[in-house]
Amino acid sequence: MKNAVNAMPVYAPVAHDEVMEAIGHKIQDHALHRGSHPALISDHGIVSWQTLMNRVNRIANRLREAGLQQGDSVAALSENSAEYVALYLGTLTAGGCMVPLSGMASAESLALMLKDCEAQFLFVSRKNRDLLIAFRPQLELLPDERIIALGEQGEGIGQGLSDWLGHGPGDPRPAEVSLDDPFNIIYSSGTTGTPKGILHDYRFRQRQIMRLSRFGLDGDAINLVSTPLYSNTTLVSVLPTLFYGGTLVIMAKFDAHRFLELAEKHRVTHAMLVPVQYQRVLADPDFDRFDLSSFKVKLCTSAPLRGDVIADAMARWPGNIREVYGLTEGGISTSLDCAAHPDKWDSVGLPTEGAEVRVIGENGKELPPGETGELVGRAISMMRGYINRPEQTREMLWTSPEGDVFYRSGDMGRIDEEGFVYILDRRKDMIISGGFNIYAVDLEKVLLAHPAVADAAVIGIPSEHWGETPLGLIVRRAGHDETESEILEWANGQLGKAQRLASIELREELPRSTIGKVLKRELRGPYWNKAAQ
Question: Which class would CATH give 430-532?
C-alpha cells in the first residue's frame, strides 16, 4: 500500500512463524475438493464453494484489470451479504488490502477514512446510498468508475457489481503475498476527527486464524454470523471458517428470534456473539423450544460477559462458551473456557498461547497480582501500527524492564494469583470521586442484581463537592414499577461508602454500538457539556 506505516510490528517468537499460507491461495482448493459444499448461506440462498470461488476470482481479476496494484486499499461500505464476503476474498486474492467501513460512522468521518487509507476502489450497498451522496464531493481523487454498487443496480451509486464484472474470466490467479504484506485496515470507532486505521498484515491474520481453528472453526464448522463484517469481532471467527472451507450463515442484521430459527434450521455449530446478543437470545420467549443441540462452541468478545449470563447460557444452551478478550490492535489476548473454569466466570480467562499480560500503575511500574492498574500485553498477533499516526502508535507502547514491548490496552483490571485476568473498566471511563477510584463494573453488577433492572450503565457526572460522582442509568424490567429512589436505596445498601451512587435515572434503552458496547461517551456528554456552559 502507498501509506507508510511508521511503527514496525513487535512479535513474540513462535516456531511456526515462517509458514505462509495466503488465504487467496488456500481457498482455491475448496472449489476443487469440496465444490458442492455450502460456503455461504443467506436469505438469498446457498452459495457453494465452486460458485463462490468463481465470483471471487472474477472480482480479483477485474480489480487488477481496473488498475489495482499490490497492496492498494479497497474499501467497502455495506451490511453483511454474500457479495460482501466475495468482495473481501476477491480483494485479498488480487493482492489488495481490504478496508471495511461502518455505516454507523458520519459522512465526514467516512470521507476522512477513505482519504487516510488512500482507497483506490469503493464498493457501496444500496442501503448506504444516502451516506455516499453526502460525502461523495469530498472524494476528489476517486473517480466515478471506481465507485461500484455492491448489488445488481447502482441506484445513484454507480455501476452495479455484476455489470462492472461483465463476462470477465474466473480463472484462479491469486497474488503472491508475504507475511509482511497488508491484509486489512480496521478503523477504530470515533466521533471526532479521523478514527485510527489499524493495519493488520498477513502474519497477524495467519497466526489468529491458526489459534481460532482450535475452537473448531474449520472445514466442518457452520458459523452463524450476526455481527458486522467491518468489526474485528466478526473477522476473528469468519476468517478461519473461510480459510478451512467451512460454512457461513450470514445475517444482514441481528434479530434474536431469527438467530434461533437459523441456528436450528442449518444445524449451526459456532457463533461469535457480543454480550448484549447473548442476553437478547436467552430472553427470547421461545428460546427453549428451539433445537440447538448442534452447537459445539459459542464465542464472546468486545466486552466481558457477565457471570449470571454465562450461567444461564451454560445451563440452557448446548455447547461450551469460550470468552475471548483482546484488542483489534492485538497484543492483549486471553481466553476463558467456561466449561473448565466455572469458578472464574467473572474473569476473561488466561493469556493464550504465546501471549503475556501484565498490570502497570500510573507511574508505568508493574504491579503485583491482585492489584488494579492498566492491563498491557504482548502476543503472537500484533498490528503493524496505526497508519499515518506514528506518534499515536508510540503512545500505545510500554516497554518492560526486560526490554520487551507491550501494547497498552486502556482497560483497568487485575490478575489473580492463578493468572486469570479481570477487567474493571476502561481507563477513560473510570470515575475519580473525592480522590477515590470507582470502577463502573462494580456498581453495574450490583444494579443488575436487582430484580427490576434489565440493563444498567454507570457514568461519572460533574460534582462541585467531589469533582465527579457516579450516576446509575437503568432500563427497568417489564412488569416492574419500582422507583428510582427505591432502587437507589437498595443499591447503595450493597455498596461501600466511597462507591455509592449519587442518583439513578430511568431510560427506555441504553445506546450501544453495532457490536453491543454501551456508548458511555454519548451518555456522559450532556452532563459535562451542561457543566461547561
Answer: alpha beta
**Global confidence as pTM:** 0.86
**Whole-number Cα distances in Å, 174 to 57, 61, 89, 119, 161:** 8, 9, 10, 21, 20
Q: Is 390 helix (H, G, I), strand (E, B) or coil?
A: helix
Cell of 335: 481466553
Strand partners, 200: 184
H or E segment at 373? strand 373-378
Q: Select from 274, 188, 293, 196 the least CA-distant residue to 233.
A: 274
**What CATH architecture applies to the domain 30-37+47-203?**
3-Layer(aba) Sandwich (3.40)
Multiple choice CATH, 353-426, 1.20.1440.60, 2.30.38.10, 3.40.1080.10, 3.40.30.10: 2.30.38.10
Nearest partner of 246 among 273, 213, 274, 272, judged by Cα: 213
pLDDT tens sequence across 386-401: 999 999 999 999 999 9
Q: How many helices (H) and strands (E) does the chain have?
A: 16, 27
Q: What is the DSSP string of 240-269?
A: HHHHTT-EEEE-SS--HHHHHHHHHHTT--
- How do residues 272-326 score in pLDDT, each as one tens digit? 999 889 989 999 999 999 999 999 999 998 878 889 899 999 999 999 999 999 9
